[in-house]
Amino acid sequence: MTVPMALLAFLDAGPTHGFALKRRYDELLGQGRELKYGQVYSTLARLERDGLAGGVGIEQGEGADRKVYAITPDGAGELDAWLSTPHVPSGRPSELFTKVVLALVAGRSATDVLDGQRAAYLARMRELTAARRAGDLVDRLAGDYEIAHLDADLRWIELAGARLDQLAAEVRGGSHPLTPLTEETR
């Protein structure tokens, strides 16, 4: 999820100022990663520079006056294009994949890596399941999303565990580019 697209989506609902945009982002998408005000205003400046949003007035407040922003037609087009483009993950799966391979390369226990990650994922799933009872619909949906991903990662951990011996032999046996150099392979 990109911050610029989030701000454009919020502006698409109607003109507003940076403080309200930050509050809305934190409320709906922040979950432990709240935006800093500086990030909101630097993003708004880039959106304005790129013609995707623009200042449309000043809102008087108890404190400092607040610049009100609105999405432009180009910004609405950019948002539509982003929303309609499916996200397809690419590249190597994750840091966990890298840790498993590198543990094997280094002659360390990839089983320990997988077991530690499994325990962390199961603990996180328990936290999310408990939190779903107290959260609003947005929080529950975000929790469901994370639980589904953790569940998929747990299935991968089981698959990787079943293949560790074969992968270790390939990594150490000289037929793979990750094979460490030994006296025989130098």
| Number of helices, counting only DSSP H or I runs of 4 residues or more | 7
Shape: elongated
Structural class by sheet pairing and helices = mainly alpha
Kindly report the oligomeric state of this protein: single chain
Estimate percent helicity: 55-70%
Protein name: Helix-turn-helix transcriptional regulator
InterPro entries: Tscrpt_reg_PadR_N, WH-like_DNA-bd_sf, WH_DNA-bd_sf
Domain Transcription regulator PadR N-terminal: 7-80
Organism: Flavimobilis rhizosphaerae
Describe the structure.
This is Helix-turn-helix transcriptional regulator. Pfam families: PadR. Residues 7-80 form the Transcription regulator PadR N-terminal domain. It comes from Flavimobilis rhizosphaerae. With 186 residues, this protein is mostly helical. It has two domains: 3-84, Arc Repressor Mutant, subunit A (Orthogonal Bundle); 95-172. The protein contains seven helices and three strands, in the order αβααββαααα. The chain has helices at 3-12, 18-28, 37-49, 73-84, 95-105, 110-132, 137-172; strands at 16-17, 53-59, 66-71. A three-stranded antiparallel β-sheet has the order 1-3-2. α1 (3-12) crosses α3, α2 (18-28) crosses α3 and α5 runs antiparallel to α6 (110-132). The chain is elongated, with a radius of gyration of 23 Å. The protein starts with a helix and ends in a 14-residue tail after the last helix. The relative contact order is 0.09.
